[in-house]
Amino acid sequence: MSEPPPRILIVDDDVAVAKSLATMLEAAGAYETRLVHRAAEAVTAAVEHAPAIVFLDIELPDMSGYDVAKLLRQHANLQTIRLIALTDSIEHPGREGARAAGFERYLVKPVTAIELQKVLRRSVNIGAGLSVVAGKGVRETIYKGLP
């Protein structure tokens, strides 16, 4: 009996970005994804879906992604999830805020399959099956000292 695929929750108000990430993950055949587009849905979806990783836009319209991350970290059943911050700006002033909120990685959109694979391997060692496709580069900041 094989293990179920790792679950990934994508929280982004940009429907196209969320679908693009989900498509890349599902094309690999190794991930089960769930999409939500509002901060208000994120905690409920995380509790119901029990993801290994949450990709979380830090600039959601109904609540900051930092605040959502803090809520996720406070929930007893979500202590082991890995949080990946998504943003539109490499110069975003909130990198330290992202780390303080519990994010392990910080990605600038658009995210490519190559960078997504790197992040997944570093976060939970589950990026091996991800197909590499051409696309624009993504910039990533990895916080020193985090696993």
Describe the structure.
With 147 residues, the protein is α/β, with parallel strands linked by helices. The protein has one domain (7-142): Response regulator (Rossmann fold, 3-Layer(aba) Sandwich). 36% of the residues lie in helices and 20% in strands. The protein has 5 helices and 6 strands. The protein has helices at residues 15-27, 39-49, 65-74, 95-101, 113-124, and strands spanning 7-11, 32-36, 53-57, 82-87, 103-108, 140-142. Strands 2-1-3-4-5-6 form a 6-stranded mixed beta sheet, sandwiched between helices. The longest helix is centred in the N-terminal third of the chain and has 13 residues, at 15-27. It is globular.
In short:
With 147 residues, the protein is α/β, with parallel strands linked by helices.
Provide keyphrases for this structure.
5 helices, 6-stranded mixed β-sheet, alpha/beta, 147 residues, disordered C terminus
As an assembly, this protein is single chain
Helix content: 25-40%
Give the beta-strand count. 6
Task: Give the count of helical stretches.
Answer: 5
What fold name goes in the CATH topology slot? Rossmann fold
Instruction: Write down the overall mean pLDDT.
Output: 78
Order of strands across the biggest sheet? Answer: 2-1-3-4-5-6
**If classified by CATH, what would the architecture be?**
3-Layer(aba) Sandwich
